[in-house]
Hints:
This protein has about 425 residues and is α/β, with parallel strands linked by helices. It has eleven helices and 20 strands. Helix 4 crosses helix 5 and helix 9 packs across helix 10. It is globular and about 65 Å long. The mean pLDDT is about 90.
Amino acid sequence: MIPAIEKATPNEIKQFQEQKLKEMLVYVSEHSPYYKNLFEREKINVRSLDTLDDLQQLPVTTKTQLQEHNEAFFCVPMHKIIDYATTSGTLGSPVTFGLTDKDLERLAYNEAISFACAGIQEGDVVQLMTTMDRRFMAGLAYFLGLRKLGAGVIRVGAGIPELQWDSILKYKPKYLVAVPSFLLKLIEYAEHHGIDYKNSSIKGVICIGESLRNQDFSPTILTQRITEKWSVQLFSTYASTEMSTAFTECEHFQGGHHHPELIITEVLDENDTPVANGESGELTITTLGVEGMPLLRFKTGDIVQLHTESCACGKNTLRVGPVLGRKQHMIKYKGTTLYPPAMHDLLTYFEGVKSHVIEISTNELGTDEILIKIASDEPSEELLNQIKDHFRAKLRVSPKVEFIAQDIINKIIFAPMSRKPITFIDKRM
């Protein structure tokens, strides 16, 4: 299930996207109160924009603008909204997205071709280890995509290793959709309860929410810890509510494949100018084919690198590399620039670290301060020193580390109103 456009030449893909862009610009100029007002205020004639390069003549859309003018981005009357989803609110107030029937079909198509990219086929059984409630778009998208693909779905939800294994042993799914660090808990539970997980039905896992690869596509420490114990294929998928589109790895694990019929991608620097080929910058997207709430040049906040060489799988679409971090989460610590994903991965190296939370604050000098709270079955000064030494060796700096009880850290990580585990807290003003 590979769309023909993904095997077209780069020039054919460019021409295709430019036609889709023209259609999108006309649509938002006629139906989006926000963009209609923007074009009038800035005296922009969207019908004069013909190429992808012409996008640079348009202002970017920020998350703050989405929060402040949420309803003005809706392009359809409310009676056409079939489903309501909200962003997780990681970087501020959640934003509501309304999806029409056409948008839900687009969402299903997106996930179907994304799962197919990772090798899932009609007739395969897939276990979902993510929530479908709480206005969470991802869980619904996975279900719709698998249904469109013709795969069987086991909707278990997040957490509860015992229930997960009960379903795996009973229904024998071939794939899981899960947060990768939770796989370590599945392995631990299986080892403690005599479950022969190495000979289970699971062949692959579509992983969400955490990095599997370093910038050179080598496996992260988290990936290594999982695969050293359990010989399953781990596929990374990257998406967001705002994009309504996923970038998923194929069997060659060289970045998430772009779907040119669904989204236009740019990578911009601090001045909203495209970076040079091979450089990292902020992923900025323009949605195609969205009816309810399309976005034009939306800055995602994620720092990534694009890869444009053809993939061995036969697709000629660009690929999005591992997310280096979120722009707003960048930390300047003792002269070193850090992002939370790198610290999360270093902590995964230690089996003695059962769970952790990274907390960033501003000290009395006005600079960033890092505190890492750790839960361990065997806390010791030796483990503390090992962690600090490992940070110095890999990141050149050593943050403050303290042990706290498992039950206390669980209340932080698994906050009742949060749809995702909280492992990073930014208290900076």
